[in-house]
Write a structure and sequence with these properties.
Structural class: alpha/beta
Shape: flat
Oligomer: single chain
Strand content: 5-15%
Number of domains: 3
CATH class of the largest domain: Alpha Beta
CATH topology of the largest domain: Rossmann fold
Largest sheet: 8 strands, mixed
CATH architecture of the largest domain: 3-Layer(aba) Sandwich
Order of helices and strands: HHHHHEHEHEHEHEHEHEEHHHHHHHHHHH
Length: 451
Amino acid sequence: MFESLSSRLGAAFDKLTRHGALSESDVSAAMREVRVALLEADVALPVVKQFIDEAKAEALGAEVLKSVTPGQQVIKIVNDHLVKMLGGAGAVDINLATEPPAAILMVGLQGSGKTTTSAKLAKLLNEKDKKRALLASLDTRRPAAMEQLAVLGEQAGIDTLAIQDGQAPVAIAKRAMKTGREQGYDVVILDTAGRLHVDDELMDEVVAVRKAAKPVETLLVADALTGQDAVNVATQFKQRVDVTGIILTRVDGDGRGGAALSMRAVTGCPIKLIGVGEQLDALEPFHPERIASRILGMGDVVGLVEKAQETIDEKEAVKLAKKIKKGGFDLNDLSSQLTQMRRMGGMDGLLGMLPGVGKVKRQMAEANVDEKSLDRMQAIISSMTKAERAKPKSLNGSRKRRIAAGSGTTVQDVNRLLKQFKQMNVMMKRMGKLGEKGLMRAGMPGLMPPQ
């Protein structure tokens, strides 16, 4: 997400930073390009107008035009205004400041990912905040909606309210809150029914449930890929049911990102969480300053470190470091590293967090390095025996043909992987000789596949 916006803004700012001194016309031209980029990304027109007016006024200040690095100063101003548009510095936590159980009402249109997000939220609160959560489905309309939440709850290790046929949504909400009080739950998450569009019947039902449950949070779940429609939906829900926060789903998709940039400014509601994948742990706090940094190509190194701390086993990392130092890195290790990369959001997710990787990503696209190439590598390695992964030199022609057939690839693909692995091993050994700073000096030549 934000890739096309990031690319357009990056091109505009490249021109600025190539200038020494800046004239008013240089700044105005850059701001015109920023305006077009934001509009093409589906950011709401009133939001774009206010953004450009404020950023341009500050960028045309004498202290900017006369500074030693005016181009960088303008970029900082745009960054600061992006952060402001997205809600200011720092993530906004889920509010649980009430006598338990805290009710959280999940609202939104059908297909926005509300039910899956409810399970993700329960898992997040359970693991991060040590809160005991109860999931309750109030969706009596969509076939098997209640059963879907029960299955997701089981997968996430979260309790779900027992299903009773024939109950209306308000009665289910009251029963869920009663169960929460009697059985000592900290949080009760109420997953309401959605519709294909906003209508009076939907809103009346949500209002009635809200009155019965008295939620401390009413969270709108919105699909980030629906652009301007998501902003309109958010506005209507805010007016009728006093939404307290937004959860954006499918932020890992290929959308233009305008919904995320517009929602906070249009509704005044903070974006509290973002869904970054289909897995039940793929729900993250929304940090405006980190998103702004990623849009402007500066990466999100803090987020990358946090992801690494959450997913990397420290003992395994030390063990691998020792193997690398001795030159013993094998295909078993490469397979575990590919799995690790997936847990951290895949190649696109990781690269998006690194500063200045736009050009690298273009080179990698030209070299056909993408998630599919990683899937292919993993399939090839999985088709080998453990002994073959430990000693790749043992792979002769007949073994390669067997591996290719087992992984749905070709012998050429197998040879390409082995050649790439050999290059990586050379790089690993060089790192061992260079010491702790070896990786920084040697770069990452093993990442690019041999052509």
